[in-house]
């Protein structure tokens, strides 16, 4: 098959990682056109079966919807299918489209955006559903929420996330080990928006420290997301950081290699989310051998229910503090079991099989 792939979000967080991990598997048995900048596609352009098309049109822009470059559309129309890792679809595409809606958190969680922000996101979700032959999402939970919120009747297939390849590589392993032997920290990876549950973790951490818990708390996240986060949590973080000077560290945005080191040197990671479409950090941590404490929300029960994580009652700081204080890491984390279920190869095959079904039709 010949597949045109939108790579314009590579380098922009989780969605960029999702598509960059899928591309090598698409290329194994298919001819692919990669749309993006040279920087976004440089890791793939020397592989077999690749054609590159420069495109720097911003996702969700007016230009993308109403005046997408004709020369780019002409290239796309030489292929059988168009795949986008998100719900933005350029106007003017005449070949079958397959898109991804990772979650509908902005429709489900009040207060994350204003009325017009919610309306705009719903417009793009519904537009993607209308223009796509099939939709992909990252969990059964997200699939059910998409159907409920969008009244979607299009086929929806689950393409689970997986640990990014840089966590499984052994390059710089010796240097990593030298920096990751202390195990004196608890790690949170994410932003400060209300549904991430950071306030619950801060309350639990304060209670645990008062009872003798001696590990530091390290918060990894994009500084911009923190500035635009939940005001109550921002105030709580500032106050607690001042009260516990030196015990809470905020790293800001860091490199993949540094994140890997933080995962490896932490005693455990805490993911206190109130809502997720998937929730990657616990999976990433377990990939390098670090255990996780996670909230008992439905999607985490789906994703992590048969893996060695410790659950606490979502939003319950007392329960989390207790779980942190008595935490005993599992004797072993079976990576083979994790990789059998959460594999980008499996997800790429799900997408390709969906295209094949359409081809047969």
Describe the structure.
The chain has 361 residues and is α/β, with parallel strands linked by helices. The chain has helices at 14-26, 38-41, 62-66, 70-76, 105-108, 115-131, 140-150, 165-168, 173-178, 198-210, 223-227, 231-243, 256-265, 281-287, 298-304, 317-325, 335-341, 344-360; strands spanning 2-6, 31-36, 50-54, 81-83, 97-100, 132-137, 156-158, 185-189, 216-220, 248-252, 266-271, 292-295, 310-312. The protein has a 7-stranded parallel sheet, with helices on both faces. A 6-stranded parallel sheet has the order 10-9-8-11-12-13, sandwiched between helices. Helix 2 links the parallel strand 2 and strand 3 (50-54). Helix 10 crosses helix 16 (317-325). The mean pLDDT is 91.
Highlighted features:
18 helices, alpha/beta, six-stranded parallel beta sheet
The major pleated sheet works out as: 7 strands, parallel
Count every helix, treating DSSP H or I runs of 4 or more residues as helices: 18
- What is the beta-strand fraction? 15-25%
Identify low-pLDDT runs.
Answer: none
Q: Strand pairing plus helix content: what structural class? A: alpha/beta
Quaternary structure annotation: single chain
Task: Write down the overall geometry.
Answer: globular
How would you write the strand order of the largest sheet? 3-2-1-4-5-6-7
Helix content: 40-55%
Could you give the distance between the termini?
15 Å
Per DSSP E runs of 2 or more residues, the count of β-strands stands at 13
What Rg, in angstroms, do the CA atoms define? 21 Å
Mean pLDDT over all positions: 91
